[in-house]
Specification:
CATH architecture of the largest domain: Alpha-Beta Barrel
Largest sheet: 8 strands, parallel, barrel
Mean pLDDT: 79
Helix content: 40-55%
Radius of gyration: 38 Å
Strand content: 5-15%
Strand order of the largest sheet: 1-2-4-5-6-7-8-9
CATH class of the largest domain: Alpha Beta
Low-confidence stretches: 1-36, 496-588, 590-597
Number of strands: 11
Distance between the termini: 109 Å
CATH superfamily of the largest domain: Phosphatidylinositol (PI) phosphodiesterase
CATH topology of the largest domain: TIM Barrel
Number of helices: 24
Length: about 625
């Protein structure tokens, strides 16, 4: 193509439009998130790692408290939460609310990532959730049958069954593109290196793009800025501070726009040392000495160098083109200058270039119809066809199997960015994406099939069997506890023996649970035996009185504790032998349990009351 002609056409069209070209407007999310990136902080801070570690620690702590509470209730123990644990729960709750608010304000799109993850993990989460509810059936059934108040029984059983049946029915409403008929899975999406291979070499350097090609990348993605003297070069940030040593070479221009430097100033900057110093992906330690030397010597590459590398290997190229700031000589001709490099200064074929800039797209299409017009916005089919769009470049949050198929029906392919996790790549594969932009070429290239892929028949069989087995086990657990609490024998000819005496009720901070109360008929001291046929008169007037034996046990036997000995026991109605806790009601309850005959009960009650110290 004649470059002088294209330049003249471009100049005429630009003048006719009055030089009015759209300025890219940062989104609210990007503007908010920018306050926390390197460009504003001035240093690397792994905030995501800190957040994940804090969340994992706090929720592990809460989970341990929950498990401990279930175990204590299963053993009939009282629950008293220490003040330190109350503070810990309050801190966890505050952290959860604050983190949710911050994430929702700065990175609201990431909630879409969470929802997408359920399309891969939901089958396994369902299996884990049902298994957990099945395990919880043991303490819940024990608690249920030992409660005295029917209202509380209804509440606890209703809540448990509501959660359980919700989990049972979740698969009916679940959707995952990776659950599909056998033989319908399409080819794996081709991989486009995001700024090269930034996990293996410094981003937007010649070495990074070479590593991307070696790792099997079929495309290269980058960001293009035009220098003050008109040389398009590769730089993502608006300044040079993060990825170069500009603070050493030009200390007074550290925060100056990268486009305001001349190429002679840019080419002397080091663009690789920061990678070894900051290690943004934690991969620097795996590099050998030769690779580290190569990285130390990296400089800023030009667009021409990238295009020639892509032409040599037959790779696709896609780039964001940044408009120079006001006062820049190429502010109004930056697109024509970029086209000039593509057409005259490089050996690449125009069909290998995915043209992403939306400004003056119709003019670019007229000047070079071989460029693959690529849009970052998904519009109607009519609008896309009118602009000659052949490829969409969308964030993975817009992943939709229906939309991708609709665009493919009119020969518009879809590229999703930035996908670096195997599970997300698997989801894009199942959805039908044609290509993905990634930081992890060397990892995703190893996947031979999606991590999760199942036919609808196999999945239905899996969750149905899971629910049936769970329901059977839960029913068996409830029947077992009901049978045991009734005191019925477990087999013919067996005799149910209660070694610890009858169950009685103790109080927790949350509910009333059946515990074990000592029975005077089972204490270890001198035995107290009464003949059921003994008359009241003979009991009073003849033979040694059983009162001394019982009195001895009342005064010498240590109180029964429902808490471990190391734990300080607080007075309650379960401390049966604490003198301050003796009441007529509690004493009468003992003898009702021990002496079923009412006359015996009244007589022994009066005798014990005489032995009791008066309450202050």
């Amino acid at each position: 193509m004649n470059t002088s002609r294209s330049s003249r056409v471009w100049a005429v069209c630009t003048a006719a439009s009055g030089g009015a070209i759209r300025e890219p407007k940062p989104s609210r999310e990007n503007a908010a998130a920018a306050r926390f990136n390197f460009g504003n902080l001035g240093f690397w801070f792994p905030w995501s790692v800190v957040l994940l570690v804090a969340a994992a620690a706090l929720f592990t702590y809460i989970a341990l408290l929950l498990v401990l509470a279930v175990c204590l209730l299963s053993e009939g123990q009282r629950l008293y939460l220490h003040w330190s644990h109350k503070i810990g729960i309050l801190v966890t709750l505050s952290f959860s609310i604050s983190a949710t608010a911050v994430l929702s304000d700065l990175w609201s799109k990431e909630w879409t990532t969470l929802l997408l993850s359920f399309q891969v993990t939901a089958p396994y989460l369902h299996l884990g959730g049902v298994s957990l509810m099945t395990l919880l059936s043991w303490p819940i059934a024990l608690h249920f049958f030992r409660m005295n108040k029917r209202e509380r029984q209804v509440v606890i059983l209703s809540l448990y069954l509501a959660v359980l049946f919700t989990l049972y029915l979740v698969p009916l409403g679940m959707y995952s593109p990776c659950i599909q008929d056998e033989g319908t899975l399409g080819p794996a999406p081709i991989l486009i290196g995001h700024r090269g291979a930034p996990m293996l070499a410094p981003e937007n350097t010649q070495l990074s793009f070479e590593r991307a090609v070696e790792a099997g990348g079929e495309g290269l993605e980058t960001d293009v800025t035009i220098s003050y003297d008109g040389i398009p070069f590769l730089m993502h940030d608006t300044t040079l501070r993060r990825t170069t040593n500009v603070h050493e070479m030009f200390p007074n221009r550290t925060d100056a726009p990268a486009a305001m430097f001349t190429w002679s100033e840019l080419e002397i900057l080091n663009a690789g040392s920061w990678f070894l110093q900051k290690d943004p992906f934690g991969t620097a330690s795996f590099l050998d000495v030769h690779e580290k030397v190569q990285i130390q010597n990296q400089t800023i590459p030009t667009l021409k160098e990238l295009l020639n590398l892509a032409a040599q290997h037959g790779s696709l190229v896609i780039f964001d083109l940044r408009r120079p700031p006001r006062g820049h000589p190429y502010r109004d001709t930056w697109i024509s200058r970029t086209l000039e490099v593509i057409h005259n200064e490089s050996s690449i074929n125009s069909s290998q270039v995915l043209w992403l800039p939306a400004d003056q797209r119709s003019l670019v299409q007229e000047l070079d119809p071989d460029l693959q017009q690529t849009s970052g916005d998904h519009g109607t089919l009519a609008e896309l066809q009118e602009e000659h769009i052949v490829r969409l470049n969308l964030h993975y949050s817009h992943m939709s199997q229906e939309q991708i198929r609709k665009y493919a029906s009119v020969n518009i392919s879809t590229n999703l960015y930035v996908i670096s996790q195997p599970w997300l790549y698997s989801l894009a594969w199942c959805t039908g994406a044609h290509s993905v932009t990634t930081n992890a070429l060397h990892i995703l290239r190893k996947l031979q099939r999606p991590l999760f892929l199942m036919t609808p028949e196999h999945y239905s069989l899996m969750w149905s069997l899971t629910d049936i087995v769970s329901a059977f086990l839960i029913a068996a657990v409830f029947i077992f506890h009901w049978w045991r609490e009734r005191g019925l024998p477990f087999w013919s000819g067996s005799r149910q023996v209660n070694e610890n005496g009858p169950y009685s009720k103790f109080r927790t901070e949350a509910s009333e649970v059946q515990g074990i109360r000592w029975n005077p008929l089972f204490f270890d001291g001198p035995s107290l035996s009464l003949d059921p046929d003994l008359s009241l008169h003979s009991l009073v007037t003849s033979g040694p009185s059983p009162a001394p034996a019982f009195e001895e046990n009342l005064t010498t036997r240590q109180p029964h504790r429902t808490c471990p000995p190391s734990q300080k026991s607080r007075p309650s109605d379960t401390d049966l032998y604490g003198k301050e806790m003796w009441t007529d009601h509690s004493v009468r309850e003992i003898f009702i349990l021990s002496f079923p005959h009412e006359l015996y009960t009244d007589m022994m009650l009066r005798r014990v009351q005489r032995l009791m110290p008066s309450r202050s």
